[in-house]
Amino acid sequence: MNNLLEDTFTKELPQDPILENTRRQVEKACYSFVIPKKTANPKLLHVAPEMAATLGINNDFLTTKEFLEIVTGNKVVDNSKPYAMCYGGHQFGNWAGQLGDGRAINLGEIVHDKKRWFLQLKGAGETPYSRTADGLAVLRSSVREYLCSEAMFYLGVPTTRALSLSLTGDNVLRDMLYNGNQAFEKGAIVSRVAPSFLRFGNYEIFSSRQDYKTLKTLVDYTIKHFYPHITENGKVGYIQFFKEVAERTLTMIIHWQRVGFVHGVMNTDNLSILGLTIDYGPYGWLEGYDTDWTPNTTDRQHKRYRYGNQPNIGLWNLYQLANSVYPLIEDAEPLEAILEDYNNNYASQYLDMMSAKVGFFAKDEKDAQLLEALEAVLQTIETDMTLFFRLLSDVSKKDSASLAVTKIKEAFYSPEALKENILTNWENWFTRYLKRLAIESFSDAERKEKMHLVNPKYVLRNYMAQLAIDKADEGDYSLIDELYTLLKNPYDEQPDNEKWFAKRPEWARNKVGCSMLSCSS
Ligand code: AMP
Ligand code: MG
Predict the structure, then answer these.
(1) Are residues 367 and 352 in the same domain?
(2) Ligand 1 center to residue 249 CA distance, Å?
(3) Which terminus of the chain is less hemmed in, N or C, by CB atoms within 10 Å?
(4) What is the CB-side half-sphere exposure of residue 119 using CA atoms within 13 A?
(5) Which position among 269, 279, 299, 384 bears the catalytic label?
């Protein structure tokens, strides 16, 4: 990893002059230098070989002690000057002030194949931004971040990546459900990778402090490195930058809706400036299709970050970003126009995405109505989202409505409840659907193939991650590897893995970790 040296972030942006690792407000600086904490007894549990290859890291190196020491913070290679970033954020709708990398430490940048990647350790110890917390991460949340970020990548969802998952050998005290039951858990570190880990909150913090000079420096840096095709200077360039951030954010959220991913904590400090899914905390996957569902128990009351609200929250967060960059633009109109476009673009992109999921490739003006009706009927009886959309491709143009219902019946959690009005509603919907399919020029087989490209067969269901965590806690890491491998090909038929193409088992319905997660990680 001797290509870990091309540091632009620390070279081009203002640093915190204080070098002690004390918790503080850091002003007029984008980052603070900080050294990762030494770990007691690090152990590598899994490496993502594809990610390593993307970074140009040799396979042989992955099994060395040096690699283990680097990705657990025990060794800082020459040329690497680790640092934590300063950012703020709106949490659950309220301005929270300075947050920052409280437990993420950047090792530096790697350039390979003309691509630049930032390498970061999550759970590597305290930083000036740790506030009241310990800077550490536990095994359960690290397994979840590791598996999910790679699974999302293979699903085609824009995301940060993961390179390795390790145990630290240290114990970490956590109150998992914030109910006074503290317990020691195994400490872990995920090394994660992204073209940039900058978040909306990195910009908000300077604006909130009216430090427009540093704000401008950071925005200019961002455009130069991550939006280099924006060549206009000044106001015009900044408007274009905001427009592209809005578009990328929307694209990411449409993908989330497509695969049934619920982020769980869409605070502005968890929204990437590159439209990448970032910070895998109490996220979850829709099982029963339910637009009101959120896995995050911390958000149980208001369900601000529920599945169906993610597109709105994306827009709300973009408003905060617009306010932050406004001082560089001093013209509200173009920013408002971009925010308005978000809504319009959302409507059309959502329609296209859902149309592809149900196999509509021709256009019909009544499609939006038919898809709305589908969302309603899906919620009349608990229906597994992943199973439903995958099975829907088995329906043939020639089927009767009742045969079509039979073909997707496996998706119902209580098929016996499918009677009377509920059954009639489903048959009525399929009657309309089959009529609509008739105008499609693709054959059943062609349509099926195209539908399979957007409807994954395998996703990281919450209980699957929990099974891997429970085993890992006992020292058996085989399921981490099994799921990692399974989720590399989420759209393919994998006959040996049919057991993962199944509804969530009943035992997992209300189990902590499977349907209930908190921010404690
Ligand atoms: P989150 O919403 O979980 O992404 O985190 C919000 C803020 O809390 C960020 O500034 C994190 O760096 C910080 N944070 C979360 N967990 C810890 C921890 N265990 N130690 C220090 N900071 C943390
Ligand atoms: Mg975060």
Answers:
(1) no
(2) 22
(3) N
(4) 32
(5) 269
DSSP 298: G
Tell which of 330, 356, 382 closes a domain.
Answer: 356
* 269 belongs to the catalytic site: yes
Tell me the C-alpha to C-alpha distance, in Å, between residue 89 and each of 57, 92, 96, 452, 489: 34, 10, 6, 38, 35
Low-confidence ranges of the chain (pLDDT < 50): none
Q: What is the pTM of this model?
A: 0.98
Q: How many residues does the chain have?
A: 521
Q: Which atom of ligand 1 is nearest to the CA of 519?
A: 3
pLDDT of the residue at 3: 64
**Helices 310-329 and 332-358 sit at what angle, rounded to 10 degrees?**
150
Kindly state whether residues 271 and 368 are assigned to the same domain.
no
- Asked whether residue 181 falls in the same domain as residue 253, the answer is no
Q: Which ligand is nearest to the CA of 98?
A: 1
Name the residue with the closest Cα to ligand 1, atom 20. Answer: 135
Give the nearest ligand 1 atom to 270 CA. 4
The answer on 164 and 17 residing in a single domain is: yes
Kindly give the distance from the C-alpha atom of residue 28 to the centroid of ligand 2, in angstroms, as a whole number: 21
Q: What is the pLDDT of residues 156-205, one digit of tens each?
A: 999 999 999 999 999 999 998 888 889 999 999 999 999 999 999 999 99
Report, in angstroms and rounded to the nearest whole number, the Rg of the chain calculated over CA atoms: 24
Residue 441 lies in a domain: yes
Beta carbons within 8 Å of 274's beta carbon, 6+ residues apart: 158, 194, 195, 196, 198, 226, 248
Distance CA(92)–CA(183), nearest Å, equals: 27
Write the secondary structure of 339-390 as one string of H (helix), E (strand) and C (coil).
HHHHHHHHHHHHHHHHHHHHCCCCCCCCHHHHHHHHHHHHCCCCEEHHHHHH
Task: Tell me, in angstroms, the distance from the centre of ligand 2 to residue 298's CA.
Answer: 14
Residue 342 falls within a domain, yes or no?
yes
Kind and range of the H or E run holding 484: helix 478-486
Write down the pLDDT at residue 6: 72
From the CA of 279, give the closest atom in ligand 1.
4
Counting ligands in written order, which one lies closest to the CA of residue 271? 2
Q: Could you tell me the CA-to-CA distances from 297 to 100, 141, 454 in Å, in that order?
A: 23, 15, 30
Residues with CB under 6 A from ligand 1: 99-103, 129-130, 133-136, 265, 267, 269-270, 279, 281, 519
How many domains does the chain contain in total?
A: 3
pLDDT at 516: 82
Q: Which ligand is nearest to the CA of 521?
A: 1
Select from 129, 139, 149 the residue to mutate for testing ligand 1; criterion: most ligand atoms less than 8 Å from CB.
Answer: 129
Query: For atom 15 of ligand 1, which residue has the closest CA?
Result: 102
Compute the C-alpha angle 494/500/505, nearest 5°: 165
In 89-233, which residue ranges form alpha helices assigned H by DSSP?
139-155, 200-208, 212-226
Burial of 300 (0-12, 13-18, 19+ CB in 10 A): exposed
What local confidence, expressed as pLDDT, does residue 466 receive? 96
With a CB cutoff of 8 Å and minimum separation 6, the contacts of 332 are 326
Measured in Å, residue 329 CA sits from the centre of ligand 2 at: 28
